[in-house]
Amino acid sequence: MPPSRGDHQVKPGRGGVRRPLTRALPLAPSLVLLLLFLAGPIAYCAYIAFTDLQLTGQAHSSFVGFDNFTAAFRDDAFLNAVWLTLVFTVLSSLIGQNTLGLALAALMQRASKTVRTVTGAVVVCAWVLPEVVAGFLLYAFFRREGTLNAILDWLHLPTQNWLFTLPILAVSFANVWRGTAFSMLVYSAALAEIPKEITEAAEMDGAGGWRRMWHITLPMIRRSIGTNLMLNTLQTLSVFGLIWVMTRGGPGNRSQTLPLFMYEQAFQKSMIGYGTAVALLLLVVGSLFSLVYMRLLRSEA
């Protein structure tokens, strides 16, 4: 009995092999650019981190293994920079931008169109300002003769040099002022996706605003919260220009986060190998934060 058509097996020919290659061909330029401008510099920096390369006064560099990393963890200035980086990230990103962005998004949902337009324009303008410009504006706000002390003096309240007494809090506030717009836009889009029927039903059942926020709104936008926290954390870890313009890491090293410490070691003290090792550690910290957030997002899926 001759085999039916359904019994025949189609063998993949050259066309089956060429098809994936043809589909991947448009991605080749992007892949080459990523390898050239992203993976390449990262690999070169990883190599430099294990050498004693200096910016000046050195003809040849030598491989020193983990000496740069060992020296970093024995350096009190490095440990201080790690602590200030965590404080700066928690205050300005995890608490400040995230909480204020959610609050603004929730309030703008119930506000009139005019209030939404004005508030959105003001907040977004702070976000689109260049980092250096924002740093100068906040420096003028917090300095001894600045706007904040002028307001406090008008209210007959005590004034102080905020950039000297509370530098890490001042730069944290500056980062919140500049970066809250991103969180507000993310949460505005997330809140707009919540069906009105759910919130209206909860309101009819007697749930107040805080109960609706805690039991309905936050659980329904938890993925947006996780994504926003991840992006804000990575951006905050790399903030340099804002702090440099306002305090340059001072007074002393009381606002010196890891990016400023890395810059000081690599370009002011000419220790490129040591500074690159610190940069590599900062990259590892950012990667760990990303893995934690991605794991949380995956567990919620």
Descriptive report:
There is one protein chain. This protein has helices at 14-24, 28-48, 67-73, 76-110, 113-128, 131-142, 147-154, 162-165, 167-192, 196-204, 209-220, 222-237, 241-246, 258-268, 272-300. It is built from 15 helices and no strands. 74% of the residues lie in helices and 0% in strands. The longest helix is centred in the first third of the chain and has 35 residues, at 76-110. The N and C termini lie far apart (53 Å). With 301 residues, the chain is mainly α.
Specify the structural class.
mainly alpha
State the separation between the terminal residues, measured CA to CA: 53 Å
Low-confidence segments, given as residue ranges, are none
Tell me the total number of β-strands. Answer: 0
* Succession of helices and strands: HHHHHHHHHHHHHHH
Determine the number of helices (DSSP H or I, runs of at least 4 residues).
15
Tell me, rounded to a whole number, the average pLDDT: 85
State which percent range the strand residues make up: under 5%
CA gyration radius, whole angstroms: 26 Å
- Give the fraction of residues assigned to helices: over 70%
Global outline: globular
* Largest sheet entry: none
